Amino acid sequence: MKRENYISWEEYFMGIAILSAERSKDPNSQVGACIVDKNNRIVSLGYNGAPTGFSDDNDMPWEREGDFLNTKYAYVCHSELNAILNSPRSVKGCVMYVTLFPCNECAKAIVQSGITEIVYLSDKYDKTEGNIVSKKIFDTCGIIYRQYERKGKSLNMEL
């Protein structure tokens, strides 16, 4: 008889997005993304961080406020964009699991890449201008988005 309390595909993919977020060195925001094809195969992963080759130790300012050139916003790549760019193949028709609802810049990349559905964990910037734009882009372009529904299961890294 098979085990009954195994995790669902959605729990698995969101769990991997959450785990991917743990790779982020950003002291304030850790965001992860997992792109999955129609056969439940992981196509790519991403987390927010410095672009490849740009030192996140010496060159990366992690400040959130102040002169734009001295804040993280001028340099950081969001998890969604990293997952799209890191993919070894097309992500057209795929689903993206992401821990934070995508910003308007990532929404454009998501649409352009051909991803058809977003499953997000948090929408903490709901009703901000960028969030409104993201949702307008998704609605206009027919991208499905929905909040992940927790099943009350807690994942832990210990065996």
Explain what the structure shows.
The chain is of the alpha/beta class and 159 residues long. Helices cover 28% and strands 17% of the residues. It contains four helices and five strands, in the order H-E-E-H-E-H-E-H-E. Strands 2-1-3-4-5 form a five-stranded mixed beta sheet. Strand 1 (32-36) and strand 2 form a beta hairpin. Helix 3 (104-113) packs parallel to helix 4. The chain is globular, with a radius of gyration of 16 Å. The relative contact order is 0.16.
Mean pLDDT: 94
Main sheet strand line-up: 2-1-3-4-5
**Contiguous helical run count:** 4
Helix content: 25-40%
Distance between the termini: 22 Å
Radius of gyration: 16 Å
Largest sheet: 5 strands, mixed
List the secondary-structure elements in sequence, H or E. HEEHEHEHE
Kindly state the number of beta strands.
5
What's the multimeric state? single chain
Beta-strand residue percentage: 15-25%
Estimated structural class: alpha/beta
Query: Unreliable segments (pLDDT under 50, ≥5 consecutive)?
Result: none
Q: What is the global morphology?
A: globular
